[in-house]
């Protein structure tokens, strides 16, 4: 079973099972007059921030992310998102994505961003399985990472049936959804086109919202299964990073053979006059964020022209 090993399957971890924290027993970072230290020992991790006079030290309860990581802290009854995060590209700490413009003027503010109830439900709801019960956070029922039941309601019953010998049990099937519906389904966590537009989010930060970017593509067709999220990505396996892997996906629409008279005109797409391989390296450019700490593939599929502004 490969899904638990994917980045989604490891979207949340506890300090005792966190390979990043275990591999880096002490991480330090300083900015704006504050010093941050994350120390891990015997399966426990501590997040400390100091202004040189006062110090706040809290246990790390949960880690969001399988590569880059942001931590959740608790002070009293209030949950906080850490103001610094770990980035594999630099093997170290820097300001958490989205908080770059924050200039904390107190030690409490430098510790992290308070999570509203809505924030917490959204974060845990997308990074775990079973965290939301009756519209409330339920840490007792929560399982780390995105598991079967997160996407396939009824999957737990399917597994129980299999263990009891009911081999004809059929799990919930998402493959029959249209590309538009799949985009909305994945967009519950990766952000839908509607949400991004309503929220008036613009600029390069939107590259993180793949369903929105994909639906901006000229070639997107909400009823064509060749252009949906799962046409290229198998959520049960780790994302493939090799550009050539996606050539067959692109050529399913853009192959010269699609121009035959026998192919319905609605299914025909122009073939690339430049190349027939490594399509995504040109038509889905990489976008660097935070000075290169994070790199995202832009899912707005297009002919990219040198020097053109980032399309919203």
Automatic annotation (TrEMBL):
Domain Cytochrome c-552/4 positions: 116-152
Residue intervals passing through the bilayer: none
Pfam families given in the database record: Cytochrome_C554
Family annotation (InterPro entries): Cyt_c-552/4, Multihaem_cyt_sf, Multiheme_Cytochr_ET
Superkingdom in the source lineage: Bacteria
Keywords, alphabetical: Signal
KW Signal (keyword) present: yes
Signal peptide (UniProt feature, chain positions): none
PANTHER family on file: C-TYPE POLYHEME CYTOCHROME OMCC (PTHR35038:SF8), DISSIMILATORY SULFITE REDUCTASE SIRA (PTHR35038)
The name this protein goes by in its record: Multiheme c-type cytochrome
